[in-house]
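Q: Could you fold this chain for me?
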Amino acid sequence: MSNTKSRTKAAALAAVQALIAGTQEHFPNGSFTLGNTAYTTASLVTLLQSVASAMTALNTAQLAAKHALTTLQGVLAQAGPVIRIYERFLQATFDNTVPILADFGLEPPRVPAPKTSEEKAAAAAKAVATREARGTTSKKQKLTVKGNVTGITVTPITTPTAAPPSAQTVSTAPSAPIPGTATK
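A: Sure. Below is the predicted structure, expressed as structure tokens.
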């Protein structure tokens, strides 16, 4: 079996099987010394066949494990939410009864230790520093921020003027004086 950078399981198995077939065809009664060890054709084929059998067994086991994992994921998808709800129910029912919760394999909910005034002050200072570093602001401060646009020319869109009325649609209404003109 030669070393390659990337070989699939099927290609590796095919390579071992090709070695077996080639050895049986070209060296039916051969004798080899490989790495200071003497082999006959039969012993070499037996060794190669054990590799092929192990590869086949591994592939079968991996497929079975993959199928079992898929089955488990399907079952957990259905049972997982029920288990979580049941655990919350048990913790709420037996909140301070540690021995009973232990019977179910559960621990009582942890109560965080109260923070000291120094820890609270440090947390507040860290929050302020984080807001400054990220540039985050409050809702009111965001409203005061306005963007500046430079280097853009806005061209107004004008609507086309209406076509003059045709000769057939002459209005009989008296015309109104045009603003800005003198009338006598």
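A (continued): Strands lie at 31-34, 37-40.
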